[in-house]
Amino acid sequence: MTQTAPDQSTTSDLTHMLIGGEKVPSSTGATYEVKNPANGQLVATVARGTTDDVNKAVAAAKAVQKQWAETPAEDRAALLFKGIALLEQNKKEIARILSQEQGKPLFEAAGEVHHMLHGLTFYAGLASKIRGSQVPVPPAMGKHSYGMIVRRPVGISVGITPWNFPLTLMGTKVGPALIAGCPIIIKPAQTTPLSTLKVIELLNEAGLPAGVLQCVTGFGSELGDTLTGHPDVRRVALTGSTGVGKRVQQVAGQSFKRVTLELGGSDGMIVCPDANLKAAVNGAMVGRFWNAGQACLAVKRLYVHEDVYDDFMSQLKDKVSRYELGDPNTVPEKPKVRMGPLHAEFQRKEIEDQLADAVAKGAKVVLGGKRPEGLDQGFFFEPTIVENVSEDSKLVTEEVFGPVLPVFKYKDLDEAIAKVNASEWGLGSSIWTNNMIWANKAVREIDAGVTWVNMIHYGYDELPFGGVKASGIGREHGPEAVDFYLEDKGVVFGGLEG
Predict the structure, then answer these.
(1) Burial of 16 by CB count in 10 Å (0-12 exposed, 13-18 middle, 19+ buried)?
(2) What span, in angstroms and rounded, lies between the C-alpha atoms of 411 and 270?
(3) Which of 277, 374, 385, 478 allows an S-S link to 367, with CB 3.0 to 4.6 Å?
């Protein structure tokens, strides 16, 4: 396999932060390295932000807050649409940078860029459609009165994004914040800042006032508490692990900030005996192994009815065995590369530990289960299917953030729903059936923020997305996401004659 170094021309200008409309280094000059998970090669050296840098970004946001809140909605939308056009012109470069820093194949990176653009376009179109209301109220002091609900921007916002889908999950924060009139500071995951910097740089080139959209890079352990606890920050949106979510809620709660937390998941997929097995197999395959299984809404527990179990498993193993692993940066590019590496070595080790625990408790690996040969430079792991998994194994009790799929056999729908609900998480779920009674039962009874029917687990910008239980609070996506960047203010006009 021939390899070549990443095209450094795409990242050489991304070693700065974006604060107050300027490209700046860290206040201390400190940097750190971003490496490609597929081959270990250096992609770029990045500014390691400090609390001083965070304070500067908040100060810049505060200076422009009133101006941006008073900017007419159609003007805010026009600037966002202009930025989207610049992103469209540069989408191939953005996808290439994303592939290099994150490790996902180029076609997956291009899909993520497309999803981000769709979301930003959706929110830009909503800018002029935010409405308040007039409310009838009883007369007061013998005079006629009427009430109104006025919607005002919450204020300075912070968006903290993860490394698995850094662009789409940034877009679900930037879009609603900007159209609501809120300046926003983005803190990307320390290992995937480059594509985020490129996107925010291009959005600023569209003419956003300095300080409206900023990006501070560095380590969450060093910047997180300052960002989420800063007295001038009024809104925090996190996509990340449940553990980090607890910390953010603890810190932000001290000053009663508006917080949404889109956290981990252990999504259950139920295949009923009447399901279209071909469609369900494809759904399970994509739903589990897209992005090497590194998705909060990935299918992480699969429940198949005993009447179709053997047929389903035969088809699933056949389909998944066709996956080809490889370095997305190999030359010539191999169009059959369907799965890239895990993003970090600790992720792979965690997957191996979870799998070993299941096997020790009686599970059987029926496909994959090891590191592939010939790809020693990256953090690769074979797509893996496991049967006979104990309910107390780590593959069930922990979030499995990688390409390992435990499959379970069930007898009736009540049993399957009970097992899906036994998890501490409640992000997504799906049921595959042509029986509307069964589908409706799953929609009513599964404890999850979303239930897909005969569909893979996919986040639509048009619909609210978020979880229950340990999967978080609040919603992103959909018009509902904008609500978290607005305060509803009651207004009463009294003393009216007539």
Answers:
(1) middle
(2) 11
(3) 385
Maximum Cα interatomic distance, the chain, rounded to a whole number of Å: 86
Do the beta carbons of residue 56 and residue 347 sit within 8 Å? no
Distance CA 361, CA 135 (A): 61
What pairs with residue 259 in β-bridges? 236
Q: What is the CA radius of gyration of the chain?
A: 24
Backbone φ and ψ of 45, nearest 5°: -105, 130
Catalytic residue among 112, 272, 296, 476: 296
The single residue listed with the structure tokens 């207004």 is 491
Domains and CATH numbers, the chain: 8-263+475-487 (3.40.605.10), 267-460 (3.40.309.10)
Q: Copy the structure tokens of residue 212.
A: 């409206």
pLDDT computed for residue 1 by the predictor: 31
Residue 182 bears catalytic tag = no
- Buried/exposed 177-213: b ≥16 CB within 10 Å, e otherwise: bbbbbbbbbbbbbbbbbbbbbbbbbbbbebebbbbbb
The catalytic position among 201, 262, 350, 476 is 262
